[in-house]
User: Fold 5-formyltetrahydrofolate cyclo-ligase from Musa troglodytarum.
Amino acid sequence: MRADGGGVQLKKVASFWMIRHPHPSSPPSSAVPLRFVAGPSGPPAAVAMAEAAVVLQKKRALRSQIRRELKVFSPAQREQEDVAIQNLVLNSPWFKSSKGLCAYISCEALREVDTSKIVAEVLKNSDAEHGLQVKKKLYVPRVEDKNSHMRMLRISKIEDLVANSMDILEPSPVDADQNECEDVMLATQPIDLFLLPGLAFDRHGRRLGRGGG
Assistant:
């Protein structure tokens, strides 16, 4: 995959995926449910458990492989590809037309694709190319407990973010002005764009996470 007609090769795009989501209740058309079909070798539950164990083992092996490959990226190469990916998003018509979006706050230690430029552009709430004010609502994840239960809370400025115990920026329940942050589940407008982190993706957009649940 290349940006700007053959410029920077986006090898790191495996860590970053964008999904157009027309309505919160409608899953992406590319989503493929995982089904286990019982065979003649045993009861359905036993077969399902065996197949699930195989899938889990393959996921672990793939995660190890991808992590090794990401470690060989030089800081300069990572920065170059981060900029190229973010520019691709910022210049896309689906980003410019979006009104509500969920995005992750990138963590350098996890070697995630940087989203700082995208977040800054959303919080600026402007379309520089046309000089128009385009109001966008931005919701970012907050981990609630050790079981990785998560909420997506709206932020309106970078000061609404605080570092958690893992030094990852996330929204506080109240913003910098001491107002309660809006939960995306209570949003009155649909979310039409998701920017999701991931360790790897296939060509159909199916995602391999980091195994944290």
In short: Helices lie at 44-71, 75-90, 93-96, 116-124. Residues 71 and 196 are 21 Å apart (CA to CA). The chain has four helices and nine strands. Residues 1-39, 126-130 have pLDDT under 50 and may be disordered.
